[in-house]
Design goal:
The protein has helices at residues 13-21, 28-37, 40-48, 95-98, 112-120, 139-147, 162-175, 216-221, 224-241, 264-272, 360-369, 391-394, 409-416, 468-472; strands spanning 3-5, 8-10, 55-59, 73-75, 82-85, 102-104, 129-132, 154-158, 180-183, 197-203, 245-255, 275-277, 297-300, 310-317, 341-343, 346-351, 354-359, 373-374, 376-382, 385-388, 398-400, 404-406, 428-434, 437-444, 449-451. It is an alpha+beta fold. The strands form 6 sheets. Strands 7, 8, 9, 10, 11, 12, 13, 14 and 18 form a 9-stranded mixed β-sheet that branches. The protein has a 4-stranded antiparallel β-sheet with strand order 4-5-3-6, with helices on one face. α1 crosses α2, α1 (13-21) packs parallel to α3 and α5 (112-120) runs parallel beside α6 (139-147).
Length: 476
């Protein structure tokens, strides 16, 4: 057969595929491998995808955001709140982004919604306890929380690296759900009690081949040796998490890489350790969802699917691990009270002067199962006075009696940058807002409002545009 490329003709299929990849500045070992594993059409589409950038967001169902403000958007077929955008917003300076009204997330990652909802329809338990094992920065965690019952279900978010854990806490606080607990286990070394989880999502640390389009560091750090190291680490994580799943429980395993060592080989490993494949092949039924993979696994390839590189698979646990005796006694934890704060279907926990909010079901899991700690901070005691955290204003489950002050665009940006706001208002703690979107708290002294925005959440640079419209739909 004769193949053509840019007006040239080739008799050799292998030579033809190599020519398609010749212009790509990627590791040679990676190019050699995909040349063997992918057909020429896939390779061509993958190469062409480097000339295109995908932008996608997921809305928060707890909050009301006018989608038309992004002007040009299209639905992501496998995610109920997911949308492609024609232009990349200046997310950082959008008050709605800072307040958790939406999350910037890669489209392929949102496929966990389809998998979870399909499994949920056939699972018998009414109250779920789930794990997001490698949780930072919080994309999948916030997505899963949007799918759970906030009163009956609880999500355990795990992140062992302190700096990443803080980013996770910040994003969870903005998202507004309180049926969440945190943990910092290294699942390469430790696990949770056996039969304690109804589902687990493992977005495993990987070699990052799926990020080559947008992250030069992923290209620079890639090596065949790193692929092997990641595959070994992934098996260690699976070893410590699989026993925690109940019979019938769901495990979703994903990576942002393409190679079989970190994907198909892990499928075989999971199956050998007491899990059945969970069929998700009907993902292909969605319009424009051109996916490649087995009936319980899909590989999202940029250019083939409008997504960054992503691999996802699903399994249901069939074997029941022997029940281990709990080594932890139930915690003796008392709930706390604040005169000016009420938690809807939840309670407050005070720890070393910091107050945390958690759902009633989350409190039970925290107290009895010892699976994690409350992590949604709402404020702290300083010199016998309560100083509210921005999270208190972000969540519809947290009710307070602080008055609100509306700021214009310029004032809102100054507040987010940590500046004092010159506004006349009644003295005391106030909630600052822009177009009814909560920004955080301040302390009014009558002629000005001193900034109480957490230093770690303040913006470093000034907004590149002077209007919200240009922030969400930047001029081309």
């Amino acid at each position: 057969m004769i193949y053509s490329f840019k007006g040239q003709f080739f008799h050799g299929y292998k030579e033809y595929k190599y020519l398609i990849l010749a212009s790509m500045d990627l590791p040679q070992a990676f190019l050699d491998r995909i040349t063997k594993e992918w057909n020429s059409e896939t390779i061509s589409k993958y190469r062409d995808s480097f000339q295109e950038i995908y932008h996608s967001i997921r809305l928060n169902p707890l909050k009301n955001l006018e989608l038309d403000s992004f002007k040009e958007y299209n639905k992501i077929p496998w995610a109920s709140q997911g949308y492609y955008l024609s232009r990349r917003p200046h997310y950082t300076w959008d008050p709605a982004f800072q307040a958790g009204y939406y999350y910037a997330q890669e489209a392929g990652s949102m496929s966990i919604e389809f998998i979870f909802q399909k499994w949920r329809k056939q699972y018998q338990e009414k109250e779920l306890i789930g794990l997001d094992a490698c949780s930072a920065p919080g994309g999948k965690a916030t997505h899963i929380l949007s799918l759970l019952d906030p009163d009956l279900d609880v999500l355990i978010c795990n992140e062992p690296i302190p700096k990443r854990a803080q980013v996770l806490k910040d994003n969870l606080g903005k998202w507004g759900y309180i049926n969440v607990l945190g943990n910092n286990l290294d699942f390469c070394k430790y696990g949770l009690p056996k039969n304690s989880l109804d589902f687990a999502v493992i977005d495993a640390p990987c070699s990052g081949e799926g990020m080559f389009r947008r992250d030069n560091r992923a290209v620079e750090e890639w090596s065949e040796e790193n692929v092997k190291t990641c595959a070994s680490r992934q098996q260690n994580i699976l070893d410590h998490i699989l026993p925690s799943l109940k019979p019938g429980g769901l495990i979703v395993y994903s990576t942002c890489t393409f190679n079989k060592d970190e994907n198909e080989s892990q499928l075989e490993y999971i199956t050998r350790h007491g899990a059945d494949p969970f069929k998700i092949s009907d993902l292909n039924n969605f319009e424009n969802a051109q996916l490649t993979g087995k009936e319980n696994a899909f590989r999202f390839i940029p250019g083939v699917t409008k997504s960054e590189g992503f691999y996802v698979s699903a399994y249901v646990i069939k074997k029941q691990s022997e029940q281990s005796e709990s080594k932890n006694k139930p915690r003796r934890i008392k709930t706390a009270k604040l005169d000016h704060v009420t938690v809807k279907n939840g309670c407050l926990i005070e720890e070393k002067g910091t107050y945390y909010a958690v759902s009633n079901r989350g409190y039970e899991v925290y107290k009895e199962a010892n699976l994690g700690l409350p992590i949604i901070a709402i404020g702290e005691e300083k010199k016998e006075k309560f100083i509210p955290h921005s999270n208190l204003g972000y969540s519809p489950f947290l009710l307070h009696n602080y008055p609100s002050v509306e700021l214009d665009w310029e004032q809102a940006q100054k507040y987010l940058e940590g500046e004092t706001i010159r506004v006349f208002c009644e003295k005391g703690i106030v909630l600052l807002q822009h177009e009814s979107i909560p920004l955080g708290f301040g302390k009014s002294v009558g002629t000005r409002i001193n900034n109480l925005k957490e230093k770690g959440l303040r913006l470093i640079n000034s907004a590149p545009s002077k209007t919200l419209a240009d922030i969400r739909f930047p001029p081309s």
